[in-house]
Design brief:
The protein is of the alpha/beta class and 571 residues long. It has a domain of 218 residues. 59% of the residues lie in helices and 17% in strands. The protein contains 20 helices and 15 strands. The longest helix is centred in the middle third of the chain and has 43 residues. The model has no long low-confidence stretch (mean pLDDT 85). Belongs to the RecN family. GO terms for molecular function: ATP binding. May be involved in recombinational repair of damaged DNA. InterPro entries: DNA_recomb/repair_RecN, P-loop_NTPase, RecF/RecN/SMC_N.
Length: 571
């Protein structure tokens, strides 16, 4: 559930902090007061699209924070574990900053994440149901996803297996069709790959080889200069027959200073420095001698190096700027060549493979279709039960299955699924998208949400003016339905209906105020007395009469009776 929400510099909200509780919370207020802005803020915490237009005018960035708690072993904690995000204290803090330049900064328990990760977590935490979701019912292409969501794990596993085979089938078919359509280009490309693979493979290229060869070539190109320098250093350090070298001279100086080292600490330090220099020069003499022994002129080796470097340069000109890039390209074309050769070898059998995969796919598709039809029967029964509670007991809801002759195999299965509806007895069943009114869509969507909320495990559900287009006893039925959902999940609800507001466990009033020539949104939790006045305002409009207050008080009393009755049933 969402425990606390903090919003700063967001649209017309300067600063807003609110604590939420379990049960059903309603947000009411005049149109334009900022009710939906609060829901927008929660939507951004759940990974919704953000833009600089959300940032309050005159500020650098909007900041939204939410503290959530979830049941142990729930979906959210499993996602956090997968992402390596700590949640040891049992709470999760989602934070999002939107800057004026459009940049987004997202954090989960202090860890920086991208918006995709935030959305992955947010989808398990919050389900926002607004009027735009009615549009999903108006889009038949969304109906199959809704059915699969209701069907749960059984259909999900079958669909996963189907889609894995479908991917193999489409790849094989594409390979076969490509080969048929491009026989000449196929052969030319195959020959080119063979040549390139052979050229790189025969070169036996090694990473770092060029640098090693260049260093060796430079030594051979500068053989005389290197030899002269080493000889000079050796003579300077070791001396000649007629004169001592630098090493012997330093040795004499060291011995002289060692003879007087005990007379003064400064003399001892000089002696130590000379000793260090003597041993360093002795080591250098050994190194120079070793290098002279290794030094050898080989004109044949120099020619060999030049030829090898030319081979490497030719490969780099064709296939990459370095040995590593050439070898990477080799791995790529070698794999492609292997696949094409395998395809060539099995070309006669490829058509048979495609046919076999198609048969397997159709068999899986039939299994998936059967499972969906079984789920559809259960969904229809569940929807009818919910619609009866919402005064649509004469309405018939059906899941309609069709198949396309021109495209019998789809990535989602073999079926096209669309919801059909009959609102009045004696009429024909017709596509829901073509005949349902706004009020009917609200009730059907609420029925679906009621059914899905029991299995989704989402702990916070938000209804943003889903009661539009209804009134009277239907409004009361919707209020009771939302209250019923709140018994299993935390519900936040924006409403203009007094019946819905009366059913709430917690009631907040949202209003706009002018502060220092700026518009700000303020949120106030209503007392029982204030609730009566607000519900009366919602019923009567601008002028709250004594009768309106009495009616509001009666609505609250009836709501308490309904909740008490449901509480007894649960016991």
């Amino acid at each position: 559930m969402l425990q606390e929400l903090s919003i700063k510099n967001f649209a017309i909200i300067d600063q807003l902090d609110v604590a939420f509780k379990n049960g059903m919370t309603v947000l009411t207020g005049e149109t334009g007061a900022g009710k939906s802005i609060i829901i927008d803020a929660v939507g951004l915490l759940a990974g919704g699209r953000g833009s600089a237009s959300f940032v309050r005018t005159g500020t650098d960035k909007a900041i939204i924070q939410g503290i959530f708690v979830f049941p142990e072993g729930g979906t959210t904690y499993r996602v956090l574990d997968d992402l390596g995000i700590d949640h040891d204290d049992g709470s999760v803090i989602l934070q999002r900053e939107i800057h004026q330049n459009g940049r987004n900064t997202c954090r989960v328990n202090g860890m920086l994440v991208n918006t995709s990760t935030l959305k992955r977590i947010g989808e398990t935490a919050v389900d926002i149901h607004g009027q735009n979701e009615h549009q999903e019912l108006m889009q038949p292409e969304k109906h199959l996803g809704m059915l699969d969501e209701f069907a749960g794990a059984t259909v999900a596993k079958l669909r996963q297996r189907y889609q894995a085979v479908y991917e193999q089938y489409t790849q094989l078919r594409a390979t076969l069709e490509n080969k048929r359509a491009n026989e000449k280009e196929w052969a030319q490309h195959l020959d080119m790959l063979k040549f390139q693979v052979n050229e790189i493979e025969s070169a036996q290229l090694e990473p770092g080889e060029e640098d090693s060869l260049v260093a060796e070539r430079d030594r051979l190109d500068n053989f005389q200069k290197i030899n002269d320098a080493l000889q000079l250093v050796q003579v300077t350090l070791t001396g000649e027959d007629t004169a001592p070298g630098a090493t012997d001279q330093i040795s004499g100086a060291m011995q002289a200073m060692q003879g007087i080292a005990d007379f003064d600490p400064a003399f001892k330090q000089i002696a130590s420095s000379l000793e260090t220099a003597y041993y360093a020069l002795s080591d250098a003499v050994g190194d120079v001698s070793s290098q002279l022994d290794l030094l050898e002129w080989d004109e044949g080796r120099l020619d060999e190096i030049e030829r090898r470097l030319e081979v490497i340069n030719q490969l780099k000109r064709k296939y990459g700027d370095s040995e590593a890039q050439v070898l990477k390209y080799f791995d790529k074309i070698a794999a492609e060549l292997k696949q094409m050769q395998a395809t060539d070898e099995t070309a006669d059998d490829l058509e048979s493979q495609v046919a076999t995969q198609r048969t397997t796919l159709l068999k899986l598709g039939e299994q998936l279709s059967k499972a969906r039809q079984q789920a559809a029967e259960k969904l229809e029964a569940a929807i009818h039960g919910e619609l009866a509670d919402l005064y649509m007991d004469k309405t018939v809801f059906a899941v309609h299955f069709t198949r396309s002759k021109s495209q019998p195999i789809l990535s989602t299965g073999l079926d096209h699924v669309e919801f059909y509806l009959r609102t009045n007895p004696g009429e024909a069943m017709r596509p829901l998208a073509k005949i349902a009114s706004g009020g009917e869509l609200s009730r059907i969507m609420l029925a679906l949400k009621t059914i899905f909320s029991e299995s989704q495990g989402i702990t916070s559900i938000i209804f943003d003016e889903v009661d539009t287009g209804v009134s009277g006893r239907v409004a009361q039925a919707i209020a009771e339905k939302i209250s019923g959902i709140a018994r299993a999940s935390q519900v936040l609800c924006i409403t203009h209906l007094p019946q819905v507001a009366a059913m709430a466990d917690h009631h907040y009033f949202i209003a706009k105020e002018i502060v220092g020539e700026r518009t700000e949104t303020k949120l106030t939790r209503l007392t029982e007395k204030d609730r009566i006045s607000e519900i009366a305002r919602m019923s009567a409009g601008t002028q709250v009469t004594k009768l309106a207050l009495e009616h509001a008080n009666e609505l609250l009393g009836l709501a308490d009776e309904v909740k008490e009755k449901h509480a007894k049933k649960q016991k």
